[in-house]
Amino acid sequence: MKKVLFLFGTRPEAIKMAPLIAAFSCDADFEVKVGVTAQHREMLDQVLSFFEIKVDYDLNLMKPNQTLHELTADLIAKITSDILLKEHFDLVFVQGDTTTVLAGALASFYQKIKIVHIEAGLRSGDMLSPFPEEMNRVLTSRITSFHFCPTEAASENLTKENINDNVFVVGNTVIDALLMGLQKIDADKEQELLSKFDFIDFSKKIILVTCHRRENFGKPFEEICEALLNIATSFENLAEIVYPVHLNPNIKEVAKSQLIADNIKLIWPLDYPELIWMMNKSNIIITDSGGIQEEAPSLGKPVLVLREVTERMEGVHSGTAVLVGSNKAKIILETQKLLENPSYYSQIATASNPYGDGTTSQKIKEIISRF
What we know:
By secondary structure, the protein is α/β, with parallel strands linked by helices. Helices cover about 45% and strands about 15% of the residues. The protein is built from 16 helices and 13 strands. It has helices at about 10-25, 40-50, 70-85, 100-110, 135-140, 150-160, 175-185, 185-195, 220-235, 250-260, 270-280, 290-295, 315-320, 330-340, 340-350, 360-370; strands spanning about 1-10, 30-35, 55-60, 90-95, 115-120, 145-150, 165-170, 205-210, 240-245, 265, 285, 305, 320-325. It has a 7-stranded parallel sheet, with helices on both faces.
């Protein structure tokens, strides 16, 4: 029996690990342990509860105004002392590109434990965008034993870096999680959510907005807000913008001061089941989120990506997403085309999702079982 540790710290990691934890927990050949660093405390806890994930180690490491230097050092030290030295693990699973991923991989490498990297091979080509995530994943790849790539393009990125051993293209577990999550929202939950969001006019075309990345702080976010206000004014009777506003003051204060219109609904940050439900209710999604770029195509929702560069170009190339950055004119033009041109909308909404079909977790388990 192999003892495996699933280690993560943020909501996106938890979402993408959830179907893997479920798949491995159902196999008698594996003893599964879960460790969390709690980079996102409240948002993480929502996902743990929704997917009924039992946590064995909770480091609860976040502190107010913590620097990246302090967080990284604390993570490496505590992951080692409070988890890796407590019991022997054959494999440690990390997912994505957070500081927890880099610290967890380093701590495991120092203990000579094999590292399994989920969502391996993503690259923007710019070490400062996104920061520090791009370098987190580049460095993690150098010490990883098993690389599970979501797409062929991600695998090719590793080949360019002379990483060729144990590289597998399996799709992205985020699709597994999305389908699992929607199955958990039954008719009673649907009515509960409709009642909770009764101030939103779902008879209109819903434009869901998420924007929180640090590269959009300042002038870029102000331009995004100008675009959204223009869209709201131009399509007052046709569309409603729903924006769950991130709590970061760089986002929250600007959004509250600029996005003032009857058909713009600034709401609280959504927990995971609320978010996937709202995505399913939407017609268009405007986002700087990596996970949503992957999820939305499985729901047939066109995505406008609020980033100058993205490590998820497969969606752009396959036609499920359009890169608009923070360019006011591009955001307005692409949204207008989606609202007014049914054939253009259908072309994007029906494009095949390059990130998988919901079977990624099973594929990963079957591959790991062979070693």
